[in-house]
């Protein structure tokens, strides 16, 4: 069996954890989804799931348009997608603040995650989906 020899550390740096949500996610016949529309820190492990939910929503909207000539799901794409996007963004934010604290000079301590920080999100809890992942448009079966 081969032995693994330790090597030199070539680089050491911090990875910036950032979040981004683009709205609206559509303009005319142009639709954004996945990382083009939203980015979450990796601490929540939600990026691929969010992209798949976007794809499901857009697929269902396009199917409704081409099968039934119903443009309303396409017109509501941004609104419907933001339901699952903000839920995942808030979860990732909470996980990031839980796992990665930073010193606060005025308190001589570390930032502590609280639910009060989630209350400042640009959505209300009333608009959150009833299920964990809201890949189905509101009112659809």
Oligomer: single chain
Strand order of the largest sheet: 1-4
Task: Summarize the main sheet.
Answer: 2 strands, antiparallel
The number of distinct β-strands equals 6
The total number of structural domains is 1
CATH architecture: 3-Layer(bba) Sandwich
> How many DSSP helices?
4
Portion of residues within helices: 25-40%
Which consecutive residue ranges, at least 5 long each, have pLDDT under 50? 107-114, 124-141
Give an overview in words:
The protein has 141 residues and is mostly helical. It is 38% helix and 9% strand. It has one domain (20-127): 3-Layer(bba) Sandwich (FAD/NAD(P)-binding domain). The protein is built from 4 helices and 6 strands; from the N terminus they run ββββαααββα. Helix 1 packs antiparallel against helix 3 (77-99). The radius of gyration is 20 Å and the shape is elongated. Residues 107-114 and 124-141 have low confidence and may be disordered.
Characteristic terms for this protein:
elongated, two-stranded antiparallel sheet, mainly alpha, disordered C terminus
Topology:
Elements: E1 20-21, E2 26-27, E3 30-31, E4 38-39, H1 47-68, H2 72-75, H3 77-99, E5 103-104, E6 109-110, H4 115-118
Antiparallel strand pairs: 1-4, 2-3, 5-6
Helix pairs in contact: 1-3
Brief account:
With 141 residues, the protein is mainly α. Helix content is 38%, strand content 9%.
């Amino acid at each position: 069996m081969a032995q693994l020899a330790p090597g030199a550390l070539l680089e050491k740096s911090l990875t910036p954890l950032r979040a981004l949500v683009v709205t609206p996610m559509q303009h005319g016949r142009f639709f954004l989804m996945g990382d083009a529309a939203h980015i979450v820190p990796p601490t929540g492990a939600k990026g691929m799931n969010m992209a798949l939910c976007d794809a499901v929503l857009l697929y269902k909207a396009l199917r409704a348009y081409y099968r039934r000539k119903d443009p309303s799901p396409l017109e509501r794409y941004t609104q419907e997608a933001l339901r699952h996007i903000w839920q995942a963004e808030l979860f990732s934010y909470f996980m990031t603040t839980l796992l990665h604290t930073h010193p606060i000079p005025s308190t001589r301590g570390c930032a502590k995650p609280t639910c009060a920080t989630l209350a400042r999100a640009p959505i209300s809890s009333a608009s959150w989906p009833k299920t964990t992942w809201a890949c189905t448009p509101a009112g659809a079966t």
